[in-house]
Amino acid sequence: MNPDPRTIADALRRWFAADARDLPWRCAPAGSRPLYPVLLSEFMLQQTQVARVLIAYPRFLARFPTLADLARAGDDEVLAAWTGLGYYRRARLLHACARALVERHDGTLPPDPAAVRALPGVGAYTAGALLSLCHDLPVPAIDTNVRRVLSRLHAAASMSTTQAEHAARTLHADAPPDTPRAGSGLLNEALIELGALICTPRSPACERCCLRASCRACAAGDPTAFGRPAPSRPRTTMHCATVVIRSRRGVLIEPRPRQGLWAGLWQAPTLEDRGRPITTHRLRSALPVQSLHPVDAFEFQTTHRTLRFRVYEASPRPHARLAVAPRRWASRRELERLPISSPQRRILLGLSSP
Length: 354
Known about the structure:
Number of strands: 7
Largest sheet: 7 strands, mixed
Distance between the termini: 69 Å
Oligomer: single chain
Helix content: 40-55%
């Protein structure tokens, strides 16, 4: 027997009203929320823990208080304000989305799902979150948390996006339309919150779950057997050799490629190799430098990579032209304003002179 949609929806609304976290972007009832807080928080929360977003969110809002302010900003300004959140492609997509909303829709969210899906960086989940939280439209927002909750409710080992959307729509169909507090926005947010706080991947708190009486996985006695995440990709190792070169004009920097890890961010000249450490001979062949001195070595973890940095200080060869575009010199004050990855910030600001 399948769980009763109305019973589940009612239990979720009551639980969320009593136990939801007080988060700064929840500045109005779900279903009638202003666009900008929802848009900003949804982009920030992709693949990033809430604790980190709680630090970055007010800082970003202070720099760009409105959607129009963000749309007018320069690319480097936005990337610099995103520092510490990682996955910098999200910052570029958020920026493009803000511009599209201002240019196409006068800074408002259209109630048309197709128009929302046409915005840069907006997929099915983000569209569902925006449309339900801002307009209370009955559009599912299926993220990893929601998929896990729904899989366990129905005792499914896993669910495809289509299956999860169908299961969510049965809940939305029973959401009374009379008030935003009891509608689809709150239902989406409650499902996400339940998956984040209670119905967790490895240690679900079934004894505290508002859906325990309806959950087929709980009745089966082993909730963790259902809604299992896909196997994670094996972590790869990348060797990085970075050279810090100073002059009276500052430190030599270059932009990273426009695609891939930390795309477009600034760094000290760096060579990378997935297979083996980079020798000083390779560095001297690639850069017109001499007198390489090792000054630091550390590891940095991303979601799928271990990056092993070796950092050198060097002096240029006589008459060498180093600041050839796109490389340039940057003062410490400039470095503090430029978009730079966390490991390069350690290198450039930790080793550069005041």
